[in-house]
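Sanity check

After download, print the first record. It should look like this:
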Amino acid sequence: GWGLKPFLLKLHLFCSSPHPPDSGPLTLQFCKSPEPSERQAVAMIPGADPRELMVGAAPPQMAMQQPANDGMAMLSRLQAVEVKEKANLLQEVTALLGDEIQMANKYDIMDTAGSRHFFAVEKTDCCRRQMQTMCCHDCASWEVDISHTPAGFPANPFIELKRPCQLTCCCFNRPIASAVDKRTGEKIGSFRDPCTCCSLRFQIRDERDEDVLLVNGGCCQPGLWCPLPCGPCAEVNFPVHDVKSGATVAHVKKRVPSCLAWCCAPDLDNYHVTFDEVQDPRWKAVLLAFTIFLDFRYFNVNRNEEEARDAIDDN
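Expected structure tokens:
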């Protein structure tokens, strides 16, 4: 009996470790998968790689297969994105009947190769959505959530865009929206639609509401007054300028998606955002959120509803 016990003990230590048991004493070893706080107390042998002795730890090759669960990291690798608004059948049919029911706006956000990396969906309730096309649309509140959608994995909350309800009349209390990082809950920027005579101009501000970028679409572009599916009337350009230097640092371009969309869903628009000199992923996220704010403010009206109402009134 006494001669067998040392042999069995050495055999157990040899089988449970990739190194010979006589290379040093074991300090402690867990039989269950350790918690993060417990992994510091895993049994270790001098000269051995601790990762090989960590009970319950995933192999390095498995850890490398996990997706980058970070929208900011994805944006840092993108130099341009396409924001494509999705059509809703019920909304377009009711618009043709002259009484449009506003449904939640949805947007696919893709790279220039057509791979989707983000998805935006409006979270506004039904009653407040209907106010967006009424006489008090400047006062209506809305919310949009932007999620990071890594291929093959569940979507992760990324940015929340919030437009609060406020009393807006002409130059008084102009509309403002904020962009919030959903992971940290911190505000990363905001947008303001100032009062101008007839041009589309927007202020993009930092987390302290200080002006950093200025977007100016002017008032003389043919795509503003007569949007068509082809030619110069098919797009509207919004250069983004640095407030301090006046230099152009990025571009936002609105496009009419197609002839079919122009006829059947005229409130549908696509946007091409080129980041150019903007390399900070946080500011890329702010520009991405601004594109949705721009769509809500000026390109969310359905021409078919107005034409149907005029036809009904004439009869």
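If your output differs, re-run the checksum step. Summary of this record's structure: Residues 14 and 110 are 53 Å apart (CA to CA).
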